[in-house]
Design brief:
There is one protein chain. By secondary structure, the protein is of the alpha+beta class. The chain folds into four domains: 79 residues, no CATH class; 83 residues, PDZ domain (Pdz3 Domain, Roll); 165 residues, 2-enoyl-CoA Hydratase, Chain A, domain 1; 91 residues, Immunoglobulin-like (Sandwich). The protein is built from twelve helices and 28 strands. Strands 21, 22, 23, 24, 25, 26, 27 and 28 form an eight-stranded mixed sheet that branches. Strands 1, 2, 14, 15, 18 and 19 form a six-stranded mixed sheet that branches. Helix 8 packs parallel to helix 9. It is flat and about 90 Å long. The N and C termini lie far apart (56 Å).
Length: 454
């Protein structure tokens, strides 16, 4: 196996690498045929090469190889970079049309006076009753600074009116962060955009003192391969990026070592919608034991595409190879099984709970507590595992599994039991750890698992 080391400044550099040796033909069709014949993985039929149009040719390739006009490619690239041209709303289907579920603060719809709960009944002359939200999305998005006229029904005033909204570029945060209980940092990456590596480094620096990290790649459909190399380079144990097999041979690709890296153990969250560059990253880190994977088996897209610019400004996105993790296990149409399989929607809870259990490993475990959501008082009884004098002086904290830390007050310390009260109502259907941290070195403390009923 040949080892190849490539240093790339960005996606455009990759384009140049693959296209400089191609002699452009007079027409895009001939140009596209030459690219397909030279680079398409795994092979191309003579029938496809005899096609009369680029669309006819790509229809005979795999689903990921497509021809895009200049405008279509711009939309594709903007989607990866989380930049969309629209009116700044999220939508859901409704029997009366399409309901606006949220509005971006300061966005076009907000400035136009639209509100969550408003129902879009028509876009222009198009009646939306019974239409899918995807169809509507295609109607209200478009070119920047163009206008779209909406017919709105507002239930709070029982009124119907029209609003003309100007489409603008909507920048959606690509990296989201939160500090969870027990000093566990949560970082979600929505897309493998060009600056993902830098944005994650910024997130790491913004949360000093974390004892562990949860890196969320759920529903992340991928993006740029260069970004995957940057993200893998955030993990100190990752010495190999991934293996790439093209038409000719197999290469070992190196990760791009980053200045700021994860400084504590990392758990990665996946689901059935984690695909492409997400799977490239997960496979690399799982094979090298650089992180623990929680969730469900990933989508199973183990082939890589490059986008080739054609002479007329259009673009050809073409499958050029198949990638795997360092161990060479096939991903395409199989996906990656996590280290810890969790129920759907419980990925954060499971990974966070495991981090907290490690922190409480030396603590004495007390009897479990079952509580109603309406209760705000918790009773902790003394046990043989922890003496009363120690427990009475302990520092008390309430750690929500999958959430944040809550402060608690000691209401009473009588009859060898503590009565604790929370400052906020407890969330139904959640689990907590009630932690009593001892002030003496002899005894680290104790904890009890607590379930809050629905």
């Amino acid at each position: 196996m040949k080892k190849l080391r490539i240093y790339v400044l960005g996606l455009i550099a990759l384009f140049a690498f693959f296209t400089t040796s191609v002699a452009y033909a007079a027409e895009p069709l001939d140009e596209a045929k030459e690219l397909v014949e030279k680079y398409y993985y795994p092979n191309i039929s003579k029938t496809a090469l005899n096609s009369n149009s680029i669309q006819e040719m790509t229809s005979q390739l795999d689903p990921y190889s497509v021809y895009m006009t200049k405008d279509e490619y711009e939309e594709f690239a903007n989607a990866i970079d989380m930049k969309l041209v629209g009116i700044g709303v999220t939508l859901e289907e409704d029997p009366k049309g399409i309901i606006i579920t949220s509005i971006m603060e300061g966005g076009p719809s907000d400035k136009a006076g639209l509100q969550p709960g408003d129902i879009i009944q028509a876009v222009g002359d198009k009646d939306l009753k019974g239409e899918a939200s995807q169809t509507v999305w295609g109607l209200i998005t478009g070119k920047e600074n163009t206008e779209v006229t909406l017919t709105i029904y507002r239930s709070t005033t029982n009124s119907t009116f029209t609003k003309t909204v100007t489409r603008k570029v909507i920048n959606i945060p690509n990296v989201e962060t939160e500090k969870l209980a027990g000093n566990i940092g949560f970082v979600r990456l929505n897309s493998f955009a060009e600056n993902s590596g830098k944005e994650i480094q910024k997130a790491i620096k913004s949360m000093p003192g974390m004892k562990g990290w949860i890196f969320d790649l759920r529903s992340n459909g991928g993006g740029y391969i260069t970004a995957a190399g940057d993200v893998i380079g955030l993990f100190p144990k990752a010495k190999v990026g991934y293996l790439l097999k093209d038409k000719d041979e197999t290469y070992s690709m190196d990760p791009v070592k980053q200045k700021v890296r994860w400084n504590a153990p990392v758990s990665i969250l996946t689901d059935a919608h984690s695909a492409s560059a997400s799977e490239m990253t997960v496979a690399s880190l799982k094979d090298q034991k650089a992180a623990t994977i929680y969730g469900q088996t990933t989508y199973g897209k183990g082939v890589m595409q490059l986008v080739f610019p054609l002479k007329d400004g259009s673009q050809l996105k073409l499958t050029v190879g198949e990638f795997t993790g360092p161990n060479g296990k096939k991903i395409q149409k199989k996906g990656i099984k996590p280290n810890v399989t969790t129920p759907i929607g419980k990925e954060v809870e499971y990974s966070h709970s495991d981090f907290l259990k490690k922190q409480l490993k030396s603590y004495n475990k007390l009897s479990s507590i079952n509580l109603k959501a309406t209760q705000k008082t918790i009773t902790i009884k003394s046990s043989t595992k922890m003496n009363w004098s120690t427990m009475k002086k302990a520092k008390v904290s309430l750690l929500q599994i999958g959430g944040k830390e809550q402060s608690m007050k000691v209401q009473q310390a009588l009859k060898k039991q503590l009565k604790l009260t929370t400052n906020k109502n407890l969330k139904p259907g959640t689990k907590y750890y009630v932690v009593l941290k001892s002030k003496t070195r002899k005894s680290p403390g104790a904890y009890a698992e607590m379930k809050v009923a629905n």
